[in-house]
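Whiteboard transcription, Tuesday session. T.W. wrote the C-alpha cells on the left side:
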C-alpha cells in the first residue's frame, strides 16, 4: 500500500514540481552535503543540455510554450546552487568533486587562467548571446502583438469564404493568442538570463574577496595559499554555473530566432539553405585548396576541409540529379497520360459537346499557379471547402465546380459562369496579397501596391508583395491571398444564385437523403401524390432566393404537406415555410449585439401596398411616385441605421405584403432581407431603428 502511494506521488507532476520549487528555496538557507551538491550540479548541467536540444529540434516556437517558465525555474535553481556552493567554499574551503575538477582539470589548476576563461565566458554570455536574444524577443513580441488584429481578420475572412470550419477558426484564434502570449512572456523571461549573468559576476567577485579575507584572517593562511585555494574553487564554481547559463542563453536565442510556421527541424533548414547549392560549395572548396597551395599557409588543414566540401558538393549534385530524373519521368508519364486523354477526347461523341456545366470558373494564364499544389496553389482545395460549407449554410449540395484556363481572358482575370453564361468577373495577382481596408485600417503612405477593389464586397484594397504583408497587417488591413479572393467571390456568387443552381434532380437527391433516416415520414408525404417534387423545388428556390437555408428539409416538407391542402400556390407555401423556419431566419440576421435591427413600414404605406396587390397575389400595381418615394425613404433609413449601429438592418412589415414588398425592392436592395412580424421568433429581441413614412 505504501509503495502504491509513493508511486502515485512520483507520477503526479504537480506534486513533484511543487516539491522541487520548495527544495530550490531551501537550498539557499540549509547547508547541503558535498555529495548531494555534486549531484545537483550535475543535474544543473544535464538540465541545460536537455533545454538546448529541445529548442534545437523544435520546428516552431509554439511547440515549446513552457520555455519561459522553465527558464525562470532553471535560473532560480542555478542561483540556489551558487548560494550553496559559496557557503561550502567559504566555510569548508571545499566545493565538492565537480567544482574541484573544473577548477583543476579544466583550467589546469592555474587560477589566473581560470579567471581569464571565466571572464571570457561571462563576456560571451552577457554581451553577445543574452543581449541578442533579449533584443530579438523584444522585437518579436512587439511585431506579434501589432499583427494580431490583422491575423484575426484573416481568420474571419477564411471562415466567411468557407475555407475553414468554425472549429478550425477557433483553433487558429487560440494559436494566435498563444503566439502573442509566448513572445510576450519571452520578452520578460529574457531579462532573467541577463540578470543571471550579472549575478554570476557579482557572486564570483564576492567569493574571491570573501575567501581571501576568511583564509588570511580566520585560518591564518599566507596570501598566496589563500589566493590559490579560494580563487581556484571560486573560479571552478563560476565555470560550473556559467557553462549551464551559457547553454540556456544559447537555447533562448535558438527558440526566439526560430521562424514560425516551419514544419522542418533547424538542421534540415540549414542543410537545404546553406549546403543545398553545389555551385556555392564548389567555389568555397576551390578557394580553400587555392589557399593551401599558397606558400607560407598551412597546406593540410585547407586541403582536408576543401576536399570535404568537394565531397559534400558531389553528393548534393548526385542527389539533385536523381531528383531531376524522377521529376522528368513523372513529367513524361503525365504528358503521356495527357496525350491519351486528348486522343480519347477526339473520339468522344458530338453529343457530349452539348453538356453545360452548372458552375465553372475560367482563369487567365497567369492564374494557373493557383491550381497547382506544387507551386503553393490551393484554389482547388478551397473550392472543395466551399462545397462543404454551402451544404452547412444553404442546405444544398453543389455540383462539381469546373476550373479551366481561358486564353481569351486577361492574364490576371477570371470569370464565373452559370450554365455556360458569364455572370461575375474579377482580377487577381497570383504572386501578391490583397490588403483590404474595411474602414478601420490606418492608411500608410509607405505601403505601396496596385490599387484595386475587392470583387465580392467592393472594399478598397491594394495588391501588395509578401514583404509588405506584415506591415499591412500591423496597420489594420485584412490581408488575404489571391486564391482566398477568388474563393470568397465564388462563395458570394453561389449564395446570390443558389436558387438557379438548385435543379429538380438535386431536390430529388435531397429527398432521397432524408429518406435514409426518415423513410416513413417521406413515404407518408408522397403517398397520395398531392405533393410533387416540382412543388417542393419551387418552394426551395423561393427560400434560397432570399438566402434562407433549406437544410432543415424535414420541417419544410412538413409545412408544405400541411398547408398544400389549403393552397398549392408556391408563394403561399413559401410564406408558411418561412414562419416555420423563423428561428433560423432570425439567427442569420442578428446584429453584433445579438438584436434584430429592423426598419419598419408605417401603417399608411402598408395599406397603399396592400391595395395595390392583385386578387391572386401575383402582381403589384402602385403609383410610380409612391414607389420612387418609398425606395428613397428606405435607402435613407437603411443608411442611417448602418451609420449609427454598424450593422445592416432588415425590413419588417406585415405578412400580407411581405412577398410583394420583397419583389418590389429586390433589384434596388438585393442584400436587404424583408421579414414579416410573425417571422420574429419569441426569444429574439427585435429593435426598430427607423420607420418609413411615405
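and on the right, the sequence the group agreed on:
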Amino acid at each position: 500500500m505504501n509503495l502504491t502511494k509513493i508511486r502515485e506521488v512520483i507520477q503526479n507532476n504537480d506534486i513533484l514540481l511543487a516539491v522541487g520549487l520548495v527544495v530550490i528555496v531551501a537550498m539557499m538557507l540549509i547547508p547541503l552535503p558535498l555529495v548531494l551538491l555534486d549531484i545537483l550540479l550535475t543535474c544543473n548541467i544535464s538540465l541545460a543540455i536537455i533545454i538546448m536540444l529541445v529548442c534545437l529540434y523544435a520546428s516552431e516556437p509554439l511547440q515549446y510554450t513552457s520555455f519561459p517558465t522553465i527558464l525562470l525555474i532553471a535560473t532560480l535553481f542555478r542561483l540556489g546552487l551558487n548560494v550553496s556552493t559559496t557557503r561550502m567554499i567559504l566555510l569548508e574551503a571545499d566545493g565538492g568533486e565537480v567544482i574541484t575538477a573544473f577548477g583543476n582539470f579544466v583550467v589546469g589548476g592555474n587560477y589566473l587562467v581560470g579567471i581569464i576563461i571565466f571572464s571570457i565566458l561571462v563576456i560571451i554570455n552577457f554581451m553577445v548571446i543574452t543581449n541578442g536574444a533579449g533584443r530579438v524577443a523584444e522585437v518579436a513580441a512587439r511585431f506579434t502583438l501589432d499583427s494580431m488584429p490583422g491575423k484575426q481578420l484573416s481568420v474571419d475572412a477564411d471562415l466567411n469564404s468557407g475555407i475553414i470550419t468554425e472549429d478550425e477558426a477557433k483553433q487558429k484564434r487560440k494559436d494566435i493568442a498563444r503566439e502573442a502570449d509566448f513572445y510576450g512572456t519571452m520578452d520578460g523571461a529574457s531579462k532573467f538570463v541577463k540578470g543571471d549573468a550579472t549575478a554570476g559576476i557579482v557572486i564570483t567577485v564576492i567569493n574571491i574577496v570573501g575567501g581571501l579575507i576568511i583564509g588570511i584572517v580566520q585560518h591564518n593562511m599566507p596570501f598566496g595559499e589563500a589566493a590559490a585555494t579560494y580563487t581556484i574553487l571560486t573560479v571552478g564554481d563560476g565555470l560550473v554555473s556559467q557553462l549551464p547559463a551559457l547553454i540556456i542563453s544559447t537555447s533562448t536565442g535558438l527558440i526566439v530566432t526560430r521562424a514560425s510556421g516551419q514544419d522542418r527541424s533547424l538542421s534540415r533548414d540549414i542543410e537545404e539553405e546553406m549546403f543545398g547549392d553545389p555551385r556555392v560549395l564548389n567555389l568555397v572548396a576551390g578557394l580553400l585548396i587555392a589557399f593551401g597551395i599558397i606558400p607560407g599557409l598551412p597546406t593540410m588543414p585547407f586541403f582536408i576541409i576543401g576536399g570535404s566540401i568537394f565531397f559534400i558538393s558531389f553528393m548534393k549534385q548526385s542527389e539533385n540529379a536523381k531528383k531531376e530524373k524522377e521529376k522528368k519521368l513523372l513529367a513524361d508519364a503525365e504528358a503521356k497520360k495527357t496525350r491519351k486523354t486528348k486522343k480519347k477526347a477526339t473520339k468522344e461523341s458530338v453529343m457530349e459537346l452539348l453538356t453545360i456545366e452548372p458552375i465553372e470558373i475560367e482563369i487567365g494564364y497567369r492564374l494557373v499557379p493557383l491550381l497547382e499544389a506544387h507551386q503553393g496553389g490551393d484554389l482547388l482545395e478551397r473550392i472543395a471547402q466551399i462545397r462543404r460549407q454551402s451544404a452547412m449554410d444553404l442546405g444544398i449540395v453543389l455540383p462539381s465546380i469546373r476550373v479551366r484556363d481561358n486564353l481569351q481572358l486577361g492574364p490576371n482575370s477570371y470569370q464565373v459562369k452559370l450554365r455556360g453564361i458569364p455572370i461575375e468577373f474579377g482580377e487577381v495577382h497570383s504572386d501578391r496579397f490583397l490588403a483590404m481596408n474595411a474602414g478601420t485600417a490606418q492608411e500608410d503612405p509607405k505601403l505601396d501596391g496596385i490599387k484595386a477593389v475587392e470583387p465580392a464586397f467592393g472594399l478598397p484594397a491594394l495588391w501588395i508583395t509578401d514583404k509588405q504583408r506584415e506591415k499591412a497587417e500591423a496597420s489594420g488591413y485584412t490581408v488575404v491571398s489571391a486564391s482566398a479572393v477568388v474563393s470568397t467571390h465564388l462563395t458570394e456568387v453561389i449564395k446570390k444564385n443558389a436558387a438557379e443552381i438548385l435543379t429538380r434532380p438535386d431536390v430529388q437527391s435531397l429527398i432521397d437523403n432524408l429518406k435514409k433516416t426518415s423513410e416513413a415520414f417521406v413515404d407518408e408525404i408522397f403517398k397520395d401524390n398531392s405533393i410533387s417534387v416540382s412543388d417542393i423545388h419551387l418552394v426551395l428556390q423561393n427560400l434560397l432566393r432570399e438566402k434562407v437555408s433549406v437544410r432543415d428539409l424535414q420541417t419544410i416538407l412538413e409545412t408544405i404537406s400541411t398547408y398544400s391542402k389549403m393552397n398549392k400556390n408556391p408563394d403561399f407555401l413559401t410564406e408558411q415555410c418561412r414562419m416555420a423556419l423563423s428561428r433560423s431566419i432570425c439567427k442569420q440576421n442578428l446584429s453584433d449585439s445579438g438584436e434584430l435591427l429592423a426598419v419598419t413600414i408605417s401603417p399608411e404605406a402598408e395599406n397603399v401596398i396592400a391595395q395595390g396587390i392583385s386578387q391572386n397575389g401575383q402582381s403589384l400595381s402602385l403609383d410610380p411616385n409612391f414607389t420612387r418615394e418609398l425606395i428613397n425613404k428606405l435607402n435613407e433609413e437603411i443608411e442611417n441605421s448602418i451609420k449609427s449601429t454598424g450593422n445592416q438592418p432588415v425590413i419588417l412589415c406585415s405578412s400580407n405584403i411581405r412577398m410583394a414588398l420583397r419583389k418590389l425592392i429586390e433589384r434596388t436592395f438585393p442584400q436587404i432581407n424583408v421579414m414579416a412580424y410573425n417571422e420574429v421568433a419569441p426569444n429574439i429581441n427585435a429593435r426598430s431603428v427607423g420607420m418609413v413614412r411615405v
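Someone added at the bottom: The chain has five domains: 39-148+167-260, 287-332, 359-497, 502-580, 590-694.
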